[in-house]
Amino acid sequence: xxxxxxxxxxxxxxxxxxxxxxxxxxxxxxxxxxxxxxxxxxxxxxxxxxxxxxxxxxxxxxxxxxxxxxxxxxxxxxxxxxxxxxxxxxxxxxxxxxxxxxxxxxxxxxxxxxxxxxxxxxxxxxxxxxxxxxxxxxxxxxxxxxxxxxxxxxxxxxxxxxxxxxxxxxxxxxxxxxxxxxxxxxxxxxxxxxxxxxxxxxxxxxxxxxxxxxxxxxxxxxxxxxxxxxxxxxxxxxxxxxxxxxxxxxxxxxxxxxxxxxxxxxxxxxxxxxxxxxxxxxxxxxxxxxxxxxxxxxxxxxxxxxxxxxxxxxxxxxxxxxxxxxxxxxxxxxxxxxxxxx
Amino acid sequence: xxxxxxxxxxxxxxxxxxxxxxxxxxxxxxxxxxxxxxxxxxxxxxxxxxxxxxxxxxxxxxxxxxxxxxxxxxxxxxxxxxxxxxxxxxxxxxxxxxxxxxxxxxxxxxxxxxxxxxxxxxxxxxxxxxxxxxxxxxxxxxxxxxxxxxxxxxxxxxxxxxxxxxxxxxxxxxxxxxxxxxxxxxxxxxxxxxxxxxxxxxxxxxxxxxxxxxxxxxxxxxxxxxxxxxxxxxxxxxxxxxxxxxxxxxxxxxxxxxxxxxxxxxxxxxxxxxxxxxxxxxxxxxxxxxxxxxxxxxxxxxxxxxxxxxxxxxxxxxxxxxxxxxxxxxxxxxxxxxxxxxxxxxxxxxxxxxxxxxxxxxxxxxxxxxxxxxxxxxxxxxxxxxxxxxxxxxxxxxxxxxxxxxxxxxxxxxxxxxxxxxxxxxxxxxxxxxxxxxxxxxxxxxxxxxxxxxxxxxxxxxxxxxxxxxxxxxxxxxxxxxxxxxxxxxxxxxxxxxxxxxxxxxxxxxxxxxxxxxxxxxxxxxxxxxxxxxxxxxxxxxxxxxxxxxxxxxxxxxxxxxxxxxxxxxxxxxxxxxxxxxxxxxxxxxxxxxxxxxxxxxxxxxxxxxxxxxxxxxxxxxxxxxxxxxxxxxxxxxxxxxxxxxxxxxxxxxxxxxxxxxxxxxxxxxxxxxxxxxxxxxxxxxxxxxxxxxxxxxxxxxxxxxxxxxxxxxxxxxxxxxxxxxxxxxxxxxxxxxxxxxxxxxxxxxxxxxxxxxxxxxxxxxxxxxxxxxxxxxxxxxxxxxxxxxxxxxxxxxxxxxxxxxxxxxxxxxxxxxxxxxxxxxxxxxxxxxxxxxxxxxxxxxxxxxxxxxxxxxxxxxxxxxxxxxxxxxxxxxxxxxxxxxxxxxxxxxxxxxxxxxxxxxxxxxxxxxxxxxxxxxxxxxxxxxxxxxxxxxxxxxxxxxxxxxxxxxxxxxxxxxxxxxxxxxxxxxxxxxxxxxxxxxxxxxxxxxxxxxxxxxxxxxxxxxxxxxxxxxxxxxxxxxxxxxxxxxxxxxxxxxxxxxxxxxxxxxxxxxxxxxxxxxxxxxxx
Lengths: 342, 1072
Prior knowledge:
The complex is a heterodimer. By secondary structure, chain A is mainly α. Chain A has helices at residues 17-24, 29-38, 41-45, 49-70, 73-78, 86-97, 101-107, 121-133, 140-148, 152-167, 181-195, 197-200, 213-219, 224-227, 229-243, 250-269, 274-277, 280-294, 299-311, 322-339; one strand spanning 2-10. Chain B is α+β, with helices and mostly antiparallel strands.
């Protein structure tokens, strides 16, 4: 006696967290049943395999029907079809949009608009979020939080993914492998936080995912710090005198100051060209982090150096871009400090 | 022109994309009522259109208002081709037609399409202005309230329970009309949905007329069903119990219900009727005297019927059709005469109620049922439903005579059902024969005793009690003598006492003296279709008991088919009964409540499914065990086998007694028949039961041996039967189940409930099925389904599945469909343990629920907490406003809260007339205002408000403050892409979820937050996998209500109880 049709519908939709997890992980009904069996549910509840199969199918059907709504979470709140308590709705959304950081790390900076890697649900989520906020103004993370009802940390991670996809930063190079998704996400957050229009005026015209053109253009003005020999020398002596006896790598700093300063200033100057933007992180690692690391700078040394390096131009005669400089260096400092590890 | 219907289309959201090119939709809305249609403007290029239309006004007769549904169609405008329909919303405006229900329907409704399901939502506001109509020859019955609930609704009081009302209307089924061959499936489905909606409206109106004629104002236990007779047509029939209800208030109950002048108007004309009780249940409304030109002579070619009263009471032998002429004693004579006079004027003294006001039910005789097999023939003239009427009349007559044979003049817990396969139809009716207290049934006698009774009767009647607390156990002696019932019969057992004459019993039965009062005789086993009376004294817990049975039948045509079915029916009834009896004894119980036997006919088999809740009634004797007797005692191994089996049975009984905590007090034999013990003594005896819980193991099968139930095993069939008895697995620990409203023995419910519907269709795969293999298959199907439910709901443990309702259908040759609707309620285990420890609470364990206790809340509510607050600025503003609306100052004075005043104002405007609002409505506006106030913040979050659904008449831990009207919805869903929609399961899963969603949306739009007495009356599923098609029809109903959590009520500042019963005037002091 086989059951052709077998459904259970509750007025309050039953959500089994374990089965939801299995469904999200892409297991078939048969696989999910096998895993539940291994979990010992049979012994605990004294039921039969047939019951477990029927239960799993019911849940899978529910999730399939819910998936359409999960694509636009505010609709999950407004829809009338499933009566789900708010905390359960939040759980459904949060779990649905949760992603594997290793995968996200791999995808960072890749194009999300084109249909690569079709088989991955998580990639679909990135694409969906990207598409939804691409054109929106205002703070990216807040937009994502509003449109997808994600908890703030998750929304910030998505904002980072969108930011990277927009700017197409190179992250896949061998020398960048030591950086985790978390590192990049933190960098993205700092860059958006300090550089984007939203950071200055909340009702900015440009989306936060793109760095404002005018700002990037202005960054060219900072080149004077390395192109003007006098300024460069004065800058060096100001920083060196401030740090003498305060950091363990004073000699190395004195020797490398000009190279470091050139690298730090030029990274910003190159951001106007899409091709050079790609190298932002590569440059930071290659020209700042790696030299410092080989000279055995400590994190404290780097922090102290960057603080004084940023503050010093204030006292440089004829340097009129201190505000711009500090805005620029705030993000660079945050990125470097986050990235400075093995 | 007695009514104006006003509709406003506000907005839409989440509409489907209708224009693939732009990914957008140009939506507009058609609003249709009767033959009038309005349209909104086209809102171009949006999936979330904001129409914000004007008020569309329909000026209509109230007859039309009652019959017609409001039909809202959302379309996509297309310049070059025909506009595409997106979907429809049907809104039943009936709840707006009586004053105590909803005043406005407003909210988001799912837009439903029979092919695509729900496609977005639409926000609609609907209002009705009713004008007084003095024309007494009209056909409408606006103002009669309908309730699905099969008890007196919680915020009402029954003044008179008039009795049975029934009506049926027939029509051609659009699905079978010639035009169906040329129209689209969508058009056909919509025609069907509309027709059934129309027929339901008409039916309700006609029933309402009958109620007015009986001078009632409400129908309780309203049950409406459809018979899809295929080619023969479509029958919509309904039964119910006419009542005169009074809205409960803390003040005097004698104030007329004058907040509805239109209703008063309607009743007056009928007062002129010289003999109000003679009402005819004829096919046509009495006022519409049509002459029929069609002869019904050949309307049915053959009929045969089968019915047996005795089957329902004892399986032993056929009944001696003895008359209950001789009386047992002078009192019984008197009582019988009284009741007789009250009931004899009625054609059918039937009541669809299953729970009754205390004192209403005097004795219960047993289950009476009747079935009849009919051959369907085309209904030639829809205006002439005489054939179907005659069929039902015949069955009801039979039920009535069965009841009489049991010495009863009334039938309670009455219901009717059909099963149709091709052209054969089985009509079934069943109920419980009972003797009722005549005083509840007559208008005249009521007045005299009403005042007295109010001061005495608790529960439904004692709202005026000054104690502030409802004691739902009548003070036995005083109240019963007051009611004119046998002076010494305690209410806890009175209903068990036999109504028939002991010396001239209608059937052989084993009678003993009542184990509770020792005065009257009781049967050894009692079967009923009603809920366990609140006052019943029960030992231990109850449990769901099912009898399941299949019988093969040869495929045959027409008359031969009908004959073979009617020949099988008595055997099936007998076997179902035997199974029930065996299973009852196996659980050590002695009574069944809520018994429902369903016989389903298919092409090659009949299926029987009986469900009931078994309990141990303290008044009835301890059931004997089950003893197996072999036919061939010489065979040694056989003997061994038998004794092995006997042991298994005994073990099962012992286990069950432990599981259900059945430890009746040990009674020395000599007590039986001795004078009634003092009440104190009795309570002591009963208390002892709780203390002796450890001694379960030595329960005495020997004690019962003298009347043990003997099963003779004479062939392998019988052996199988015994085996099948033992296959029923008890629910896993932490679960109980019952099919009644309340679970005997559990009363500490938490508010956590989960209503659900589960449907299974299984293929009987046997090539050469036998009755045995089929029985086993069917049994497994039911058991597995239950197992599945327990697993699904495991997170709710400890919990009880209440009102478990199984429905069996045989859609095709080898397919069996089972649908279950029930509610799982979590109960508090710790509280239960505490209660057990407290001897005073345990001393008389009663099947009572919290909902009875809720009755105390009107008292607290009435003393309006808002009125105690200073309110002057708002008050002045309101006074200014009200003087413009013409509310007399005197009336304003009477309003003791601003909410009430606003409400009054709203009513005045709405009705176009001034009415005297008395304190009667006082309880509800406050609660309502309070509720609305609370729901505001959730609305701003744009989350959907929660609507609870339950098949029960109450919500645990909550108080129902208002009934908003009946929900009766019929939906068809069809697909031509079954595989793409996830196969049959995916299709039905989505459809059931959609039905729930539409019910919830309608309730929310009425301003409610729950549906009680919810029932899925029909779920007809058909599939054609080869064509990738499926179709399903679902019919559901229930009562939309507003409830308030008891915990929220406690938040309200509670007035000292002394202030509670004060009349309106003094309470209104603050605002005046």
